[in-house]
Design brief:
20 helices, alpha/beta, eight-stranded mixed beta sheet, binds zinc ion, single chain, three-stranded parallel beta sheet
Length: 498
């Protein structure tokens, strides 16, 4: 553009000259002709792998729709976005007429698990197409026990050799000794933390995930200190012996679920945390669920407000995981035996669902009632956090042991619940396509359909800004440079059906 502009200035000077006017006029004409020809020939000189025409593009960051656009794509990169009227300029190996359809970036599920032991590696791999078929082109895997396989899938999906989403993974979780989740790395002191982080960096994880089943207050904060020194992102659960502000002040990047942010909204956070610490090595330690009623009764909206402001200043990320809370909260009274998604879940993964069904049956009616009240209060915090500028991301927590939270559809459920909590549809979509990339610090390549950005996208039958349920009607998915039509997606699903 700059050189073109300079040519025009030079031509203008030519015209002003009194001498050699005829010669210059001739020269001007030939130059103008060359410029015009160059203008037409530039895009057509290139051949794109795919051109999508007549498409309505949803610009998620602004919540606006731009109609009748054209997307020129080569592999995994959007090369140009133009008016469909200019279609003649764009030559491609393949054309898709997307008349009446809505294009937006592929969805990100920011909290999934691949787990269940070596015998379930194949069953976990068979979950990958479920994400794609539901428009999820990126997942953030938050800790499991099959890291070598996940690393292989991460590479293979990125290369387009395996049909599945892009994968960011934490590898194994860090926890204390005797952790509840298999595959976790135990840490108790600074030397062990250093060794654990060495091993995570050696296998090339994308972030650190801390779990809270056995970890001590000091080891937890030491992980954050050392990880931040190494430039690693840290998120996770949090032991109730730690206060959220302590972790955020050390540079922790995010918190999974709403328990920990909820705890920090109590006016008695200090004294309740003290009681939890004192009970830690006694016969009756106060666990997370034991402390919730006291936290609920001392919830302080003014404290919540100032906390959210602080978290926003820290660029803190929260993954509310509303869908799994709701699903598990209603597990006792819901009949899941006819769920259509069960046909795509390996029976051995389905067996792992029974653990949470059994614990729900043990819960008293009072406990169930309290959980409903607690969930409602937590959910009401989401739009407040969003408005304060906290980075809210959509995550389903799907995976073995997380009963009836199916890969793919559960993320749609999460987005709908985020909207039901008070976010606008545009904000709900932002949690699923913009904010995850922000957490992973790759926002320059994702989040919108613009030239130079990644071509992972979905085509929807109707406008999700008008009705968020439109995210269920997925017509086409493009992931890792490959286009999947409705027929292709159905074939992928048929391939993993039992
Ligand atoms: Zn999880």
């Amino acid at each position: 553009m700059k050189s073109c502009y300079l040519v025009k200035i030079r031509l203008f000077n030519f015209i002003r000259s009194k001498y050699l006017r005829r010669m210059k006029r001739l020269f001007l004409l030939s130059l103008a002709l060359v410029t015009v020809l160059a203008g037409f020939s530039q895009p057509s000189a290139k051949r794109f792998t795919l051109v999508i025409t007549n498409v309505n593009i949803i610009d998620v960051p602004t919540g606006k729709v731009v109609q009748n656009r054209l997307l020129a794509i080569s592999g995994d990169t959007i090369k140009a976005v133009d008016d469909t009227k200019m279609a003649a300029k764009y030559k491609a190996d393949r054309y898709v007429d997307a008349r009446g359809k809505y294009a937006m970036p592929g969805l990100w599920d920011m909290h999934v698990h691949f787990r269940g032991g070596d015998s379930l590696i194949g069953a976990n791999k068979a979950l990958l197409p479920l994400f794609l078929a539901n428009g999820i082109t990126t997942v953030r895997e938050c800790g499991g026990d099959m890291t070598p396989s996940v690393m292989t899938w991460r590479k293979a999906t990125a290369l387009g050799e395996l049909a599945g989403p892009r994968i960011f993974t934490s590898g194994p979780k860090l926890d204390g000794p005797g952790a509840v989740w298999a595959g976790s790395i135990p840490v108790t002191n600074p030397a062990e933390v250093s060794k654990a982080l060495d091993s995570l960096q050696k296998i090339g994880v994308d972030f650190v995930k801390i779990y809270d089943s056995k970890i001590s207050h000091d080891a937890y904060l030491e992980i954050i200190r050392q990880a931040k020194k190494r430039g690693m992102k840290v998120t996770g659960h949090m032991p109730f012996t730690v206060e959220l502000k302590e972790a955020a002040a050390l540079g922790m990047d995010g918190s999974e679920h709403l328990y920990y942010v909820f705890k920090a909204c109590s006016s008695k956070e200090d004294s309740i945390t003290d009681l939890i610490r004192q009970s830690e090595n006694t016969a009756h330690p106060i666990g997370l669920f034991g402390a919730l009623p006291a936290l609920f009764n001392t919830f302080d909206s003014a404290k919540a407000k100032s906390l959210f402001k602080y978290l926003a200043e820290k660029n803190f990320t929260i993954t509310p995981t509303l869908f799994i809370s709701k699903t598990l909260g209603e597990i006792k009274q819901t009949d899941h035996t006819t769920d259509s998604m069960l046909a795509y879940i390996d029976p051995r993964i389905q067996e792992t669902y029974q653990g949470r069904v059994r614990s729900a049956r043990r819960q008293s009616d009072d406990g169930t009632q309290f959980k409903l009240k607690y969930d409602a209060l937590c959910t009401s915090l989401v739009p407040q956090m969003y408005a304060a500028g906290v980075n809210i991301v959509a995550g389903s927590d799907c995976g073995a042991s997380n009963s009836f939270v199916y890969p793919g559809t559960s993320l749609h459920g999460e987005i709908k619940l985020l909207v039901a909590s008070g976010l606008t549809p545009a904000q709900g979509l932002k949690t699923a396509v913009v904010n995850g990339a922000k957490f992973m610090k790759v926002e320059n390549f994702y989040g919108s359909l613009q030239a130079g950005k990644c071509s992972d996208l979905i085509l929807l039958d109707s406008n999700p800004l008008e009705n968020i349920n439109a995210i269920d009607q997925i017509n086409v998915v493009m992931a890792n440079g490959k286009l999947y039509t409705k027929e292709d997606l159905n074939a992928l699903l048929a391939g993993v059906r039992h």
